[in-house]
Amino acid sequence: YEDTQKWSYENILDIIAVGFDPDRTFIFQDTEFIANIYPMAVKVARKINFSLARAVFGFTEQNNIGIIFFPALQIIPTFFEKKRCLIPSAIDQDPYWRIQRDIAESFGYYKTAAIHSKFLPALTGPTQKMSASKPETAIYLTDDEKTVKRKIFKYAFSGGRPTIELHRKLGGNPDIDVSFIWLKYFFEPDDKRLKEIEEEYRSGKLLSGELKQILIDKINVFLREQRRRREKALDLVDKFKYDGALAREMWSKKII
Amino acid sequence: YEDTQKWSYENILDIIAVGFDPDRTFIFQDTEFIANIYPMAVKVARKINFSLARAVFGFTEQNNIGIIFFPALQIIPTFFEKKRCLIPSAIDQDPYWRIQRDIAESFGYYKTAAIHSKFLPALTGPTQKMSASKPETAIYLTDDEKTVKRKIFKYAFSGGRPTIELHRKLGGNPDIDVSFIWLKYFFEPDDKRLKEIEEEYRSGKLLSGELKQILIDKINVFLREQRRRREKALDLVDKFKYDGALAREMWSKKII
């Protein structure tokens, strides 16, 4: 419990650092906001029996009764307003919304819509998934500059050739090169510049190490800015959680 | 949900009418007090898996995920203080306390103690159980005088004989007569008077109808007083729930 409190605080700082409007954003933790949402969670829970929850989430007899109850809570934000809710999430969260769509209308609410984001490739290769428990698969928002450099050089899956000579002769493959893919999705907003990098890499003019260095520089610029924004976020946490215009409205509202 | 809110309000009035000290009593509803107890409930829930909950409470796959989570909440009041808790309840609540005793010490709290009350016989017979859903088995605190009279005359299981002649000759049996048992446990505090009634009934001098009338009068005196106290209780609800000395202390306290 204490660990999740720490992690959620770190997550909140990262979310704020992205740049949301504190008067139009409400960040809450179940453990605090529970009095406002619990009555509705009780109603929702009545519509989900163990048999259904097991079929949808793969629960077993060994799962604890807290995690079994959790789907009832996870669904509640779709009932914050009598409007159709739009949820950005990855596909692994979809089971919750499927149950939501089964029961929403019986409470007079709308079935939720969802936007599914694609998983971006892990540092270790385009077919792998980033993981919070495997530091070599991802760059964390809290990694320092030296760590970034070390991780990219050591783990970033490369589309380059085994030797410089071969690379100059045959060229690299940007389609499977994680450094290039990350530049494309995250860090190089200029399409012309991206095209240049791609062609130089494919032609063999740009080496793998050079490509990695381009990514490292971009990531470190981004993380420097992120650290600056996280510093500022410290003062904004209470506004997003309690004092902002939307936050105040939400705390005075019982979802039922 | 709306029904349970109504019933719990009625229960609260009855509890207050009994005469507890509003500064030393805290009455709460889970739906309201949940923010104070939810963090601890999450910790407790982690120690109870479905397999255990099913073994102890007899859950099936058809039970909803709210009722499956409920044992985690039911246990929390035993953690309100770092003292040994004493719970007065009927035997059917014991499974909760058995789980509590398994886990309490791992959180640094004490195993709870319990006092088990006996079920009193239903109106319909000494081997039956009163039930909120079977009006003929019990007198409700909200029954009016006419209802009390009708229920006792119609349903109260009697130890009397089929005819007055036989009753005068053989006498009644107070040991199985619910009117007499209720007088004994609830309504006749004077042991000498009780003894008199018992002997007169056993000898046949006192008829079943007369015994019932004694009980009816006693119940109606009690209910008249209970109605008066319930009226006064209306003004005390907020004190027991929010404003009394203990209530204020509890609301400012997070159980963890």
Short précis:
With 256 residues, chain A is mainly alpha-helical.
What's the helix-strand series of chain A?
Answer: HHHHEHEEEHHHHHHH
Distance between the termini of chain A: 27 Å
Which two protein chains have the largest interface (Cβ within 8 Å of the partner's Cβ), and how many residues from each?
A-B, 35 and 35 residues
Strands of chain A, count:
4
Give me the Rg of chain A, rounded.
Answer: 23 Å
CATH class membership of the largest domain in chain A: Alpha Beta
Query: How much strand of chain A?
Result: 5-15%
* Low-pLDDT residue intervals, each spanning 5 or more residues of chain A: none
Q: What is the 3D form of chain A?
A: elongated
Count of DSSP H/I helices of chain A: 12
Helicity of chain A, in percent?
Answer: 55-70%
What is the CATH homologous superfamily assignment of the largest domain in chain A? HUPs
Count of domains of chain A: 2
